[in-house]
Amino acid sequence: MAFTSDDISINTLIGPGSFVSGDIKINGFIRIDGDIKGKIESPGNIIIGERAKIQGNITASSIVVGGIVLGDITAPKGIKLLSNSVVIGDIMTKSLQIEEDVIFNGHCISLSNEEEFKASSRQYLDQQAIRSKVI
After folding, report:
1. What residues have CB less than 8 Å from 91, skipping those under 6 apart?
2. Considering the entire predicted model, what is its pTM?
3. Whole-angstrom distance, CA of residue 51 vs CA of residue 4
4. 79-107, pLDDT tens digit by residue?
């Protein structure tokens, strides 16, 4: 998974020691080195630093995880889990890279074919919606 040349400059930075509580919508490339409790959405790319802790679902074009994520991750272009990262939640992407010493506990949909990815994603989201109404 490679970032495109437009995605080089970081639009938003949440630095170490920062804590955000609430949902975040960012238009562009974001790097997170602090803690967030809430949903994160971006049409761009997200880098989660090795000391970052996220409690909430993340949706972006592509995501690199170096820290801890407790929530589902959706990134159609790709997801990369760096060494020593932790993801407790489900992953949906077309391209998944996992380095050594990663902890991942959840379901994974990783299909490079666009149509298969869309169909599996829709089916998964429908199942999640039904489960949330039952619980």
Report:
1. 72, 73, 74, 79, 104, 106, 107, 108, 109, 110
2. 0.86
3. 25
4. 999 999 999 999 999 999 999 999 999 99
